[in-house]
Amino acid sequence: MANARIETRVYIDQLKRSFGINPEGSFFNVVRCPHDFGTYLDIRFYYDDEDQLHVKYMMAIESGCHKWDDHSKKELVERNYTVKILDEEIGFTC
Predict the structure, then answer these.
(1) How far is CA 35 from CA 3, 28, 32, 75, in A?
(2) Model pTM greater than 0.90?
């Protein structure tokens, strides 16, 4: 769960870097979601659907960020985020 907490915070920061700071009155929140196979974290964006700035921002972030940017990668390392990655070409985990 520690990795998930780190990941959600870093991802929210990347969304803000990529799409700008969310409009005043809107906000991100991380929610714990219990599941049969354990608890996972979900990032939610709360906004006023009557406010066009909020709606435009929500629509922009809906596409998300498909890859970690360099700043996020550095931040993940600094926060001791760990993950095993299989390198299919070489066949080892790091």
Answers:
(1) 18, 22, 10, 29
(2) no
Strand, coil or helix: 36: coil
pLDDT in tens, the chain (94 residues): 788 899 999 999 999 999 999 999 999 999 999 888 888 999 999 999 999 999 999 999 999 998 889 999 889 888 888 766 655 443 333 3
Query: What CA–CA distances, in Å, run from 77 to 8, 32, 64, 73, 86?
Result: 14, 24, 21, 6, 18
Whether the Cβ atoms of residue 20 and residue 14 lie closer than 8 Å to each other:
no
Cα-Cα end-to-end distance for the chain? 20
Phi, psi of 33, deg, nearest 5: -120, 105
